[in-house]
Design brief:
The structure is a homohexamer.
Chain A (H helix, E strand, L loop, with lengths): L18 H14 L4 H6 L3 H15 L7 H14 L3 H15 L4 H7 L8 H16 L5 H8 L5 H23 L6 H5 L8
Chain lengths: 194, 194, 194, 194, 194, 194
């Protein structure tokens, strides 16, 4: 049985890619132990690839009042709302690793209200889901609610920008039928030392 | 009466911006005669600014089976579906200019089905709106319908990528309450020679 | 190229219409400088035409705690929610003229929350949209909220009745594919003296 | 226990009403044996009352390819979709009487697909509900489907105009909390001779 | 004209049914004077029949802080939200009988907010509809609101369990196109002594 | 840190339960190696517990044209649509075990259209989701589509009955905030021999 396709579109070979892109891919491969399919599938369009990961890094790697795990919670919760398999599975894995918690990803993907997270994080995800699903309805009171939980205006930009970036990402993944790597399904699910 | 704010967030002064960003802004100012507020408001976060416009250019300026006016139709129709005032008003103006048509922008923002466009363009916007609103439901038959109108797979990526990028853009504009420049409301509405 | 049709249904000639209807049409033509297509297209059914405009006048011309511009805001905001091109474009023009504001129509058609209007007007449009979209959920607290902004019960009837009348009007326009006159797109957009 | 209010707004006394309106009300009282509350409650605003019933008569009494029972089916089905108690109960009664069928009103108010009606009537109600709920999506193929069931373009206007008029009527009834007369609940439910 | 079918599936003959099921059916027939179609149609699957009525009895006959009429209100309101003709008509009849009120069933099926019920009952139905339509959004504040109306936690389980059981029941009735008995339409509508 | 609560309601001790229920629970514990929380949490109401599992067994254990894995696919897909964490996690685990596939559960919970399943299974899940979300719209053509994939009418009852039973189950789990056992998250994710 042939391996299932990871994209509806042609997937370039590593050696055919521009040096800048190949370097980035090899770097992630070294760190993760495999190449997440988002890298190979989006490389079909090098200019979009570069802008995509520049944007990703700008919102995800930026110093922020949010922890790395909190940022991934936003990704997983909004990807759940958008029914994007790739992002739920891949970022669910990353969230498990960052949070050192084997259950939180499934929880926030389905229902952040009952997840094992803090009230502050629940408020953060409520706001993120409003950006994802009904951004036209954003109102000053929504910002004040987050201020009440200690988020600064810059933190709120971070929350909204991550939700907005994954609005793009989820749609691209669904557009090209991006397939999650098998590795992601299990990552971060085993207790330490197992 | 003071001028209304163009963003919920601080708006940097041109002279305080990194050279690369200031150059881009001056270039657009020279071409348009004014600085569209998206440039000034997003410059609050230089890294995100650079990634945003790199992405914009990658999908909007790329050689494609879609005309420049068709690309703007996608922007206006999906921004209408997302209720994003900035993008409807600003890209509505650009669409009027590219299409040399003073009515098409209002038409596609409200109801592409009855707009003065071709059946091919109607099929394009139907697909774009599915990406914008229900990307999880994309199915092979949707791609075939576009093939039947002469769109290639690469054209379909363009359609979907524009819808996806403005899913991000619409949410950012709503997040920061980005205000359209007054100039955009009128642009492209006057008959030639008026 | 022939002029595009203004209705899916036959459009009567002025000279074939009953005197009462023709007189009304000539009157509006003299005032506006052109005949808005709603008059010609609905005249296909004279009895419905007469009832339609009697209703329109009863709710729109009545002495009221709402200004003429505020009534048109309700029309434009609810027509935006119902995606009715004719009413957005035609009443958007009337709103710009009454409010002497070239931007407010596009603003309330897309998102009344961020429009350049008063908090009182925002509360008015919130109520009107509830009548337009979810009238079953109207509750005493909604009336009290408007009382808190100084609206009387009779004002509230006006708000609701305008939203209700344009629920009809929007559906008729969409049913017969009523086309806005070209004149409306530009009306009220130019600064005075231009 | 006092009788429950039939409107959120003042209900005029018959003797205080303009002659034209009182005559209409006495006429319906003579025919029905009681005064349906829509007459008394809307009489609070005489001009709107006159326009409302002129419109009602124009669409409901017009010679048409639809029977009187079919017109009431449209009223009941769209009022069901809009959750309007007054119209479901009052027009449900009228439908039972016209159709000489004690069950059809409850059936079409809940689910026209499984009602004891003809395929032609099912197509009619499908179109009417599209006008009521998603008129922006009306497309040429919807008209063709009705042509296939023998409906003329004028019949289709009738179907759409009834759905549109009751879009108004349902919202007015919900706005003023119009209460159905007790008589309507039972009317037309008893077998003949009972 | 043959009697219309009461199910899309074969309806067993009483004499072919297992003794336990036949006894239950004869018992209800003796009490009601006819056999409600839910008994005959679900008997096509004896094991599911037994579990269905065991569940029904467990939630509907249990000693509770809710009256029998209140339990039926929940059934009718949630069945209205789910557009299930059988349950609206059959349980509407039962509700009329229990509540000795010929109007309350139609009222709660369409809009509990305006029904002739107590504020406590309105809160109960608001919660039940949330269970029926958006159970993922249930939050501690919803339980507190019911506590404020004097409902205990066990009462709340009853409310939720009835809404949940009829989520099943409504779907089964729609799946097999279960037809309400003619008797139900009139039951409980006549004043006493009529 | 105390163990998080597995239910909003009191959880009975095994030794306090009626013998019939305790026996069932010990049986499942022996087979699974732990007691799934649905057993302990629902045992708070013994009569409902017995009916619940009788219904579960009637639809899930019945001889059928559906395999055990296919039945669990229906559970997982409809629980995904209903956002029920307990059922997605617990039945996702069971599906992985039955299907001997570590990925299929996450796939069908999010988007059955792109899951690694057969076209026949895709049609089955499409029907099940219609039962779960819009059962009023079920139409003869839906049954015919399943016949075209080789499903008998009895198979279709199975599909619908499972979707209906988990409509109940999902709502009960959300009502009582039922917590999935930690064991379920990992079950069936490890390759054989790992």
């Amino acid at each position: 049985m042939p391996a299932p396709s990871i994209s509806r579109y042609p997937v370039p070979k590593l050696e055919d890619l521009p040096e800048e892109i190949r370097a980035r891919i090899l770097e992630v491969q070294e760190k993760a132990g495999f190449i997440p399919n988002v890298f190979l599938t989006l490389a079909h369009r090098p200019e979009e690839f570069k802008a995509f990961f520049a944007y990703h890094d700008a919102v995800m790697l930026r110093e922020s009042g949010l922890t790395k795990a909190e940022k991934e919670m936003i990704v997983v919760a909004t990807s759940g709302a958008n029914d994007c398999l790739y992002c739920i599975v891949a970022h669910g894995a990353i969230l498990r690793v960052y949070a050192k918690d084997s259950r939180v990803a499934d929880q926030v993907a389905v229902n952040y209200r009952k997840a094992d997270i803090s009230d502050r994080q629940r408020a953060m995800l409520k706001f993120a889901l409003k950006v994802a699903l009904r951004s036209v309805e954003l109102d000053e009171v929504d910002y004040q609610e987050l201020h009440g939980h200690g988020f600064s205006d810059e933190d709120i930009w971070d929350i909204g920008a991550i939700a907005a970036f994954f609005a793009l990402s989820n749609r691209m993944a669904n557009l090209i039928a991006m397939r999650p790597n098998d590795e992601f399904y299990l990552l971060g699910r085993l207790p330490k030392g197992a």
